[in-house]
């Protein structure tokens, strides 16, 4: 079988120099999955994935001042998009938006789609106004090998519930989640909280170097999306929980219902007192987890083999090679 090389570019800082991106999502060495080989930084890929790439705005006006005038000659040259495309033809360049269409960024996303269509043959995102509205292919953030995740039995469960989140508060949706966190802390629910940049009052167990440690020992995991208002958006919060054999208590849009088998996750009804009461009732015993084990096992195989971003890329290359 001929192997096609796929390169990648992203505006996510952690990915800009990652040579082994997605390699943990395949059982084969060096990022091979079926007919593709993910080589993010290769100089001459046959296909190129623009993964949440933020195009620079060449028409953005800078505030004029004497300082700007003095620094004019010292400014870096404007980014040349063509130089980033590595000679790949338009029909073989893929643009995937990953961030949700929060009210605060909708116009920015629309502009990104417009620009992407100038350079990319396929432009998609998890929102209705994307050129191709589509679910995000699955990535996950466990460091376990693909073989380990694929073949493992449920790990030992010793604690009721965990929540891995952050203290980001830049949008109304983020602030709603932080308010719900405050309500959770004031309740009688037993759960362990992990994450970065959380307020001191949150009583966090700290940031995790490996999400597995904050999920695998727990029966339940709170998977609360930043956005739940369309039919497309679902993120790694759900995939990570299921791959760690947790039963997710999920707050998000209806996309998850279309992608995963019934009973593989629970729906959190709301981010208010009703939601608090639901979590308290479910996490009081592991009964719901035991009842969901078979559905969780099925969902894990769907995530690993079908929803996997590498599998999505293999299908795309097969249909557009």
What are the key terms here?
seven-stranded mixed beta sheet; Rossmann fold; 2 domains; five-stranded parallel beta sheet; alpha/beta
What does this structure look like?
This protein is of the alpha/beta class and 321 residues long. It is 31% helix and 17% strand. It folds into 2 domains: 4-134, no CATH class; 146-307, Rossmann fold (3-Layer(aba) Sandwich). It contains 10 helices and 12 strands. A 7-stranded mixed beta sheet has the order 2-3-1-4-5-6-7, sandwiched between helices. Helix 5 (172-185) links the parallel strand 8 and strand 9. The longest helix has 21 residues, at 287-307. Mean pLDDT is 93; it is low at 60-67 and 69-77.
Individual helix count: 10
As laid out across the biggest beta sheet, the strand order is 2-3-1-4-5-6-7
β-sheet strand percentage: 15-25%
Which radius of gyration do the C-alpha atoms yield? Answer: 21 Å
- The N- to C-terminal Cα distance equals 13 Å
- What pattern of helices and strands is seen along the backbone? EEEEHHEHEEHEHEEHEHEHHH
Overall CATH class of the largest domain: Alpha Beta
Helix percent band: 25-40%
| CATH homologous superfamily placement of the largest domain | Glycosyl transferase family 10, C-terminal domain
Could you say which overall geometry the principal axes of the C-alpha atoms support? globular
Question: What is the SS-derived class?
Answer: alpha/beta
Please, what is the average pLDDT? 93
CATH architecture annotation of the largest domain: 3-Layer(aba) Sandwich
**CATH fold naming of the largest domain:** Rossmann fold
Largest sheet: 7 strands, mixed
Low-confidence stretches: 60-67, 69-77
What is the count of distinct domains? 2
What's the count of strands? 12
């Amino acid at each position: 079988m001929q192997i096609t090389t796929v390169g990648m570019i992203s505006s996510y800082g952690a990915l800009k120099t990652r040579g082994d991106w997605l390699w943990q999502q395949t059982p084969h060495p060096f990022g091979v999955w079926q007919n593709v080989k993910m080589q993010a930084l290769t100089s001459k890929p046959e296909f190129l994935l623009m993964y949440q790439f933020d195009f620079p705005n060449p028409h953005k006006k800078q505030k004029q001042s004497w300082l700007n005038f003095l620094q004019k000659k010292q400014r870096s040259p404007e980014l040349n998009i063509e130089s980033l495309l590595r000679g790949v033809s338009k029909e073989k360049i893929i643009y995937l938006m990953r961030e949700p269409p929060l009210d605060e960024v909708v116009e920015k996303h629309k502009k990104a789609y417009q620009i992407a269509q100038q350079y990319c043959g396929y432009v998609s995102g998890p929102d209705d106004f994307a050129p191709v509205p589509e679910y995000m292919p699955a990535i996950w953030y466990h460091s376990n090998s693909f073989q380990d995740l694929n073949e493992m039995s449920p790990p030992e469960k010793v604690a009721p519930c965990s929540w891995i989140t952050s203290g980001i508060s830049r949008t109304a949706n983020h602030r709603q989640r932080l308010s719900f966190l405050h309500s959770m802390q004031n309740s009688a629910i037993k759960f362990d909280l992990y994450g970065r940049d959380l307020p001191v009052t949150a009583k966090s167990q700290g940031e995790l170097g490996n999400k597995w440690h904050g999920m695998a020992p727990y029966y339940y995991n709170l998977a609360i999306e930043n956005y739940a208002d369309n039919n497309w958006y679902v993120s790694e919060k759900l995939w990570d929980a299921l791959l760690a054999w947790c039963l997710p208590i999920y707050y998000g849009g209806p996309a998850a219902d279309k992608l995963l088998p019934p009973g593989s996750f629970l729906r959190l009804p709301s981010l208010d007192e009703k939601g608090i009461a639901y979590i308290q009732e479910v996490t009081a015993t592991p009964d719901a987890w035991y009842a969901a084990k078979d559905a969780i096992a099925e969902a894990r195989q769907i995530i690993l083999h079908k929803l996997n971003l590498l599998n999505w890329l293999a299908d795309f290359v097969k249909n557009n090679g």
